[in-house]
Design brief:
By secondary structure, the chain is mainly alpha-helical. It has one domain. About 45% of the residues lie in helices and about 10% in strands. It has 6 helices and 5 strands. The longest helix is centred in the N-terminal third of the chain and has 16 residues. The structure holds iron/sulfur cluster. The site of iron/sulfur cluster has 9 residues, from loops.
Length: about 150
């Protein structure tokens, strides 16, 4: 099943999802969408050598999302522009650009070394899920190397 997530040499993830995954607690838009997030998370945590192709466009999680429309996020009209900007902000925080490839272990190293609570709040504070707190909890877990 996890093999279906791998496209070419790696697994595509949009920038902001790199910061969502560490603290993921099961929030999502449909059962399928939540299941996809869990599948990606379980795969990455079991195989941190997985190559991740980072991007600022729909990824392996968006593929199954009911809000993907005409090739972009349409949770609200015009949202792909806003979401891709958020992706680039997250990538910049990690010292990355869309189109780069690195292993999931290297992503975690960058989160550990470059992100703190204030920076995460600046990058992701406008997200609808941020107030729930799981993103900050995930950051703390990564920084304490419990993942
Ligand atoms: S399509 Fe939009 S709402 Fe759905 S997972 Fe992708 S970014 Fe999130």
């Amino acid at each position: 099943m996890a093999d279906a997530l791998i496209i070419g040499n790696g697994l595509t993830l949009r920038g902001h999802h790199l910061l969502c995954l560490p603290g993921y607690e099961g929030f999502g838009y449909t059962d399928e969408h939540v299941a996809r997030m869990w599948l990606v998370r379980e795969h990455l945590w079991a195989h941190n050598e997985t190559v991740v192709a980072v991007q600022d466009s729909p990824d392996v999680v968006c593929q199954i999302c009911p809000h993907l429309s005409n090739g972009g996020c349409a949770i609200e009209p015009g949202d792909e522009v806003w979401v891709s900007r958020r992706d680039r902000r997250a990538l910049s925080l990690l010292g990355l650009k869309a189109g780069q490839q690195l292993t999931w272990g290297e992503v975690l190293d960058r989160i550990r070394g470059r992100v703190d609570e204030q920076k995460l709040a600046r990058a992701c504070g406008q997200c609808r899920w941020f107030p729930k707190g799981h993103c900050l909890r995930g950051l703390q877990e990564v920084k304490s190397q419990n993942v």
